[in-house]
Amino acid sequence: MQISLHTVVPAIHVEPAMMFAYPTCASDVYTPKVEQIFLPEQEDVPKLLVEIKVTKKYTWEVQVANWKWKLFEQVVKLGQHKRSLDYEGHFIFDARGETDKNIAHLLENICTPVLLAKKLLSEKLKRPVEINVVLKENASNLSKDLFSTLNIPILCTNFEVYGDVVEVIHDYSYRLYGTGAELFNFEFKNYNSSTAERVFIARRGNRHLINHHEVSKFLEEKGFVTCYFEISQQVKNGRSHATQKQLLRFMVLELATLSSIVWG
């Protein structure tokens, strides 16, 4: 199957707002106080021309540098078997070049283009279309839970896959933010409509705020709920796998439907 579809993702305009920042190398290091920075109205992301390209071919094959894989590779070569999976007649999107342990990367770089391609292909073919996302054999539980939540089928393998390979081509200097709110506007699996209205997305590890507890306490008094990107860390700190999935669904809902947050 050979298909080429074109669409335009609308631009994102950001209203003027104030930003407050501590003195760092990114602002005035000579002023020992919080900086107030005025952000004028601007077109944060221009409109993007996007091509959805479908080609019947093989995906690339993941190279695993360990002795078990190399031994298996030699056995396959001796047997003259091609290391590939036949998915002919199925749409596939190879996502093995992207990290599968960061929810922001998964949402922006995989889920959004897959859902956009699914929408346009369904309209073109006048029937519901499913796109299988190809992940590495040892894909993270985070990525599996995310795609399950969004009802996106996955295939975990390090082999080549033959089928109708879907590519979403655009200026990669920008993300597809302008279409995110529309694409994710559906009820996810086990959707919970009672999630918080205000969310403080914090970080752990070397990306955490030095005064995290102070900021978190201040925001919680204003009605915010603190949530972390590092979902896998929740399990290490004693949270159950069920809680991890619940938090994941919450973050998908809150992150995917908002292109920007402006405080007045």
Helix content: 25-40%
Mean of residue pLDDT?
A: 78
Shape: globular
Measured distance between first and last alpha carbons: 50 Å
- Characterize the largest beta sheet: strand count, sense, and whether it forms a barrel: 6 strands, mixed
Q: Can you count the helices?
A: 7
Would you tell me the structural class of the helices and strands? alpha/beta
Strand % is 25-35%
Number of strands: 12
State the order of secondary-structure elements, H for helix, E for strand.
EEEEEEHEHEHEEHEHEHH
In the predicted model, the low-confidence regions spanning at least 5 consecutive residues are 232-244, 254-264
Rg (CA only): 22 Å
Give me the side-by-side strand order of the main sheet: 1-6-10-7-8-9
Molecular structure report:
With 264 residues, the chain is α/β, with parallel strands linked by helices. It contains seven helices and twelve strands. The strands form four sheets. It has a six-stranded mixed β-sheet with strand order 1-6-10-7-8-9, covered by helices on one side. Strand 11, helix 5 (212-221) and strand 12 form a beta-alpha-beta unit. Helix 3 (141-149) crosses helix 7. It starts with a strand and ends in an 8-residue tail after the last helix.
Give the secondary structure arrangement, pairings included.
Layout: E1 3-9, E2 12-14, E3 17-21, E4 35-39, E5 42-45, E6 48-58, H1 67-79, E7 84-94, H2 103-125, E8 131-135, H3 141-149, E9 154-156, E10 160-169, H4 180-183, E11 199-202, H5 212-221, E12 225-228, H6 231-236, H7 241-256
Helix pairs in contact: 3-7
